[in-house]
Amino acid sequence: MKIIWLSLFAATLVACAQNSGPNSTSQQDWFQFGEQQALVGYEKQSDDELKQSSQVSVDSELYQAYSAGYEQGRQEYCQQDPKILGKKGELYRGICDDIRPTFRIWYNNGKASRSRY
């Protein structure tokens, strides 16, 4: 039981570290962070979420850099074949629903075909 709790605690720390943002005030770093978040399918964080989780002061310029990077990464992420994403068993968080309305349908088709084998 103790091992389970330690594993959950470690996973929580890793998840928080992944979403806390760069430890710098470089707009390029924040752009890349936003891009990487989208490329792995994470939902876009709000200004307040980033301010609370970041170790640096996130001003409007850093948030705009993050947002621009996120949108660029999201465009790229949404170009992939959603059926393959579903077949791989990867989690889809809905970030393409407004860009490609059929993305979720094809993702679910791929996910369903995975369970048949």
TrEMBL record:
Annotated InterPro entries: DUF2799
Signal peptide: 1-17
Domain of life: Bacteria
Keyword terms: Signal
Annotated protein name in UniProt: Lipoprotein
